[in-house]
Write a structure and sequence with these properties.
The longest helix has 21 residues. The chain has one domain: Alpha-Beta Barrel (TIM Barrel). The chain is globular. α7 links the parallel β9 and β10. It has 15 helices and 14 strands. By secondary structure, it is of the alpha/beta class. The strands form four sheets. An eight-stranded parallel beta barrel has the order 1-2-3-4-9-10-11-14. The two termini are 28 Å apart.
């Protein structure tokens, strides 16, 4: 019997996300991203399909690597314009009961004290349905936007991230004890001040002497997502991440990453079951294989390889406009997404070229779509789980919202028939649904910052 797969919609509060150019398709509604009604209807659709959540990507800069200018990104709507995803979440939560929300936030750009309050607020407003995708950034344009000359080196960003995590753990887990809130109307005491503690953090990057402004939220710490697959990223994930997001490669390569991440987690004192792996996937499906292939051919007419090059240039840290089609590309010492460069080298060979990169782009991105009937899609997803050890998928939008409506109408019933997908939501917080407990387990590094209540095992 296969295990139940977890599913997130993977999207962004913008026009063009991963599959570049499809915003121009006549049935696509992503240009309605400025309308709250678009997002609330989207949330209802996903909850109808029993999706675990919507995973919001985000960037705080523009893609200006290609040609040394943001012009191409602006012309093609390559993740610009882009609005703040956190402001969508309360409205989407208000029209759903179980759907959860993973939100990307770049910790190198966010002041940790105020960020911790924002996440606690969202956890309260969603009744524990919030997750944080921890990113360290990869765009020089984002660093310049906040007054820096450029971004830190790749591994140095993770060193900063380790300290950032220590600080927010202290605020979320250690500032307010579990029974600090009394809400005693008779005695007129809302909280017991002796159980609320000032955090003293004096580190290399941050100095904070303050109590957390929020009382404990349902999860305290949001569910922690992370997408680093580089050596340093995997080290960070093994310590902090509960859910790791991997981009698609060949099954053996993904399995090796999955096994490595889980082995590292065990070596750090955690259980292998403390980490769930989500694989990026793009699905085009229909009533039959022929129906899905016809839709795929239609979508391809709107996909933009030019826009995809703009996106790839930023994520790989390489200006492809400088190269002729068959000129070998020097990856050099890219400080962008190192794991993307490594994956591209595995796919196209050590001497890859702009032409080889374009051969990888079939629907406006380097992520090849899974195209076929519901039975074919279900077979493939279950095989990924069985053979590579992944726990679920982040499904990128193509033509929205029909891509998710198609998946829910065709694929979800087949997965359910095969015992690979739930028939109803589990009650509780996002962490309850994924792991069976509302707060981080005692084996997680954050647990060391708690005030232990002897009457209750923390985090269980």
């Amino acid at each position: 019997m296969p295990k139940h797969l977890h599913l997130n919609a993977f999207d962004m509060n913008c026009v063009g996300h991963i599959q570049q150019g499809l915003w121009a398709h006549p049935r696509d509604q992503s240009s309605r991203y400025k309308e709250l009604a678009y997002w609330t209807a989207y949330a209802k659709t996903l909850e109808k399909g029993l999706f675990d959540g919507i995973f919001f990507a985000d960037v705080a800069g523009v893609y200006d690597v290609y040609g040394g200018s943001p012009d191409a990104a602006i012309e093609h709507a390559v993740q610009v314009p882009v609005n703040d995803p956190t402001l969508l979440i309360p409205a989407m939560a208000a029209v759903t009961t179980h759907l959860s929300f993973g939100v990307t936030s770049n910790l190198t750009l966010e002041q940790p004290y105020l960020f911790a309050r924002r996440m606690s607020t969202l956890d309260h407003l969603t009744n524990g349905r919030i997750g944080w995708n921890i990113v360290t950034g990869y765009l020089d344009s984002a660093s310049r936007a906040i007054g820096l000359t450029g971004q830190m080196a790749h591994d140095d960003r993770y060193d900063l991230a380790d300290e950032y995590m220590e600080l927010v753990y202290k605020l979320w887990e250690g500032s307010w004890e579990d029974h600090a809130v009394l809400a005693d109307t008779t005695a007129r005491r809302y909280a017991d001040a002796s159980k609320v503690h000032v955090i003293h953090h004096h580190g290399k990057q941050y100095r904070v002497d303050a109590m957390h402004l929020c009382e404990p939220s349902p999860q305290r710490t949001p569910v922690l997502y992370q997408a680093g697959a580089s050596t340093r990223g995997k080290q960070f994930a093994s310590t902090h991440a509960e859910c790791v997001f991997l981009n698609g490669q060949a099954k053996p390569a993904v399995k090796a990453l999955v096994d490595d991440i889980r082995a590292r987690a065990v070596a750090s004192g955690r259980s292998a079951d403390d980490v769930k792996i989500f694989l990026g996937q793009t699905v085009i499906t229909g009533r039959t294989d022929a129906d899905a292939q016809e839709k795929y051919a239609e979508y391809q007419r709107y996909a933009s390889s030019d826009a995809a090059l703009v996106h790839a240039a930023a994520s790989l840290g390489i200006d492809f406009a400088r190269y002729d089609p068959d000129e070998p590309i020097d990856t050099g010492k890219s400080q962008a997404i190192v794991s993307n460069v490594e994956a591209m080298t595995r796919a196209a060979g050590p001497q890859w070229t702009r032409r080889k990169l374009l051969e990888q782009i079939v629907l406006g991105s380097r992520q090849a779509p899974l195209v076929g009937s519901a039975e074919h899609v279900a077979d493939t997803l279950i095989a990924w789980s069985d053979e590579a050890g992944v726990d679920g998928f982040n499904l990128s939008r193509t033509v929205a919202p029909e891509c998710f409506e198609d998946f829910i109408a065709h694929v979800v019933p087949v997965l359910q028939e095969r015992g690979a997908y739930k028939h109803a939501y589990r009650d509780g917080t996002l962490r309850d649904k994924l792991f069976g407990h509302p707060r981080l387990p005692s084996t997680h590094t954050a647990a060391q910052y708690r005030h232990i209540d002897p009457s209750r095992r923390s985090g269980e």
